[in-house]
Structure formats: structure tokens, C-alpha cells
């Protein structure tokens, strides 16, 4: 073999590697965090204000993992809580779920997670009266 064959083999290997990576990247699953980035950006300052409202309370929302349940402990000073819990799974959009808050008399909510696994970002949008609050935590099931 002469030098021309070595150059040709090197170029063919390089082109085949480029084609392989192009095909592989085009078939990758790319889930977006949200389908409406513009609207989410407009609401960003409101989220900052809601996080600041949580800081004014005597305690934040405590999230405790007990076997196959998540227990949300809301501050005792806040009454008549409404809102929702959004479970965001970064690895698979199909696992995302929104759950309405249903607080018991101890200002707690229990959520069954027995069929979930992996990393989740728990986003809680809640309010009491006219005050709105936002809490966000990462949890691994």
C-alpha cells in the first residue's frame, strides 16, 4: 500500500464516523422543559416574588420521603391552602404529572410514588387567600 491508500482509508473512516453521529443524533429523544418558553419567561418575576413570600414564613414546605409515599408538610401558620404539585421528570416527559393539593387538618399532603423512579423536580404552586407561594425541590425516588 502506498500513501494514497492510507489517506483514502483515513478520509473514509472520518466520513463514516460523521455519518454515524449524524444519524444517531437525529434519532435522539429531545424533550423540552416547557412548550411555551416565552410565557414561562414572562412569569419568571412572579415566581421570584412567590419564592420570597415563602422566605417570610416561619418554615418552608418540608418534603419527606417515607417508603412509597412523599409527605408534604406545609407551615402551620398558613390556612386554607390551595394549589397544585407538578412532578417534572427531566429524563422523560411522559412521567410528568400535575396533582391538585388536598391538604389535611395537619397541613400535610401524602402522595403515593410507588410506581415512580428516577430524578424528579417537585414544583409546588400554592396560595392562601391572596398570597401566592412557590416551592421547588429535586428528589430522587
Structural features, described:
The chain has 141 residues and is an alpha+beta fold. Helices cover 30% and strands 33% of the residues. It is built from 3 helices and 7 strands, in the order H-H-H-E-E-E-E-E-E-E. The protein has helices spanning 3-26, 37-42, 44-55, and strands at residues 62-66, 69-73, 81-88, 97-100, 108-112, 119-128, 131-140. The strands form 2 sheets. Strands 4-3-6-7 form a 4-stranded antiparallel sheet. Strands 1-2-5 form a 3-stranded antiparallel sheet, with no helix packed on it. The longest helix is centred in the first third of the chain and has 24 residues, at 3-26. The radius of gyration is 24 Å and the shape is elongated.
Question: Descriptors for this entry?
Answer:
alpha+beta, 7 strands, elongated, three-stranded antiparallel beta sheet
Amino acid at each position: 500500500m502506498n500513501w494514497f491508500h492510507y489517506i483514502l482509508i483515513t478520509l473514509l473512516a472520518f466520513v463514516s464516523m460523521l455519518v454515524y453521529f449524524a444519524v444517531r443524533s437525529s434519532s435522539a429523544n429531545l424533550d423540552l422543559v416547557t412548550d411555551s418558553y416565552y410565557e414561562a419567561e414572562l412569569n419568571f418575576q412572579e415566581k421570584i416574588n412567590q419564592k420570597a413570600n415563602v422566605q417570610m414564613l416561619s418554615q418552608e414546605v418540608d418534603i419527606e420521603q417515607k417508603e412509597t409515599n412523599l409527605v408534604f408538610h406545609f407551615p402551620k401558620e398558613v390556612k386554607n391552602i390551595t394549589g397544585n404539585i407538578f412532578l417534572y421528570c427531566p429524563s422523560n416527559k411522559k412521567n410528568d404529572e400535575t396533582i391538585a393539593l388536598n391538604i389535611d387538618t395537619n397541613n400535610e399532603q401524602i402522595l403515593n410514588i410507588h410506581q415512580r423512579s428516577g430524578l424528579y423536580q417537585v414544583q409546588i404552586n400554592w396560595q392562601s387567600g391572596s398570597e401566592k407561594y412557590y416551592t421547588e425541590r429535586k428528589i430522587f425516588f
